[in-house]
Amino acid sequence: MMMNKVVVITTGGTIAMSEDLRSRTVKPIDQDTLDQMMPFLEDYRPVQMDHFINIPSPHMTPEIMYQLALHMNQYLENKDVSGIVITHGTDTLEETAYFLDLLITSEKPVVLTGAMRSSNELGADGPLNLVNSVRVAKDPTSRGKGVLVVFNDEIHAARYVTKTHTSNVATFQSPANGPIGTVTKKGIRFSHAPLIRDNYPLVPPNGKIGLIKAAVGMDDLLIHTYIDNNYQGIVIEALGQGNLPPKMLNGIKRAVENKIPIVLVSRSFNGFVDDVYDYEGGGKQLKKLGVIFSNGLNGQKARIKLMVTYHLFKNGQEDLQKYFDR
Ligand SMILES: NC(=O)C[C@H](N)C(=O)O
């Protein structure tokens, strides 16, 4: 008989931290403290804890994400495991979630969660987020929906979710599409599922991808700096529907000539970039120059996607645009 086990892979973050009540600062503690949450999971056994790493999420790297994906895949191949929960710091949680979403082939649920309040703070949200995540990971209706983020009773798709507040427990939101489900006291209720799911081979990601946010009157200094420092791709958070200040154009031309892909997203968090505006620095000109337009991803997620697809581009499939159309 299959065991229907959920494995909780811990990676650190505030859920594995505590507050020094005198200095009001928060710092990492021994990750075994997450084991103290096991009694809350009694009703959902079997649950296994696996302490993978204990880092604040600003210390996460593409290499660690890759190791985490390999580690997680070993569990997903095990027929006794029905789902995975990964605890993670919230600052870069959406990036790890989207990275795994792009690489996972299993239909089994993979859920990321964490906490905004550390373990000894009043109203600590870690235990409830963990219990809700295990419930979602165990629920058969969660299968085949890609990597999920469960936080504050909501279920979000990795592709759309983003951290929107520095301290509020309702920080995770999907600005364009809303949550795809809700965790209630009695059940897991999905209202919709992401239609777009793309998968790429699990190879080490290219960590030399830069990210620039465009702003009024900006020039191309940062683009040249990335090129001079051997970066292999650059994501630009452009203005509005995909336009840039004219002074950024020379750097863009140099990057494209050097076969350094430039991927354009919008710094507005709703909507798409398109080659609509026909003026200097406008989307039409950028498209003509060879800039790749992305598909409603935010800058940090487009960067993850370029890290994951770069090797396909390198291997001669020059048309990166087709990956970013999806
Ligand atoms: N709430 C959190 O987890 C934030 C923390 N700085 C982290 O990302 O590790």
Please explain how this structure is put together.
This is asparaginase. Keywords: Hydrolase. Its EC number is 3.5.1.1. It comes from Tepidibacillus fermentans. The protein has about 325 residues and is an alpha/beta fold. The chain has two domains: about 5-190, L-asparaginase, N-terminal domain (Rossmann fold, 3-Layer(aba) Sandwich); about 210-325, Rossmann fold (3-Layer(aba) Sandwich). The chain has eight helices and 16 strands. It has helices at about 60-75, 95-105, 125-140, 220-230, 250-255, 285-290, 300-315, 320-325, and strands at about 5-10, 15-20, 25-30, 45-55, 80-85, 110-115, 150, 155, 160-165, 170-175, 180-185, 190, 210-215, 235-240, 260-265, 290-295. The strands form four sheets. It has an eight-stranded mixed sheet, with helices on both faces. The longest helix has 16 residues, at about 300-315. The mean pLDDT is about 95. The structure holds asparagine.
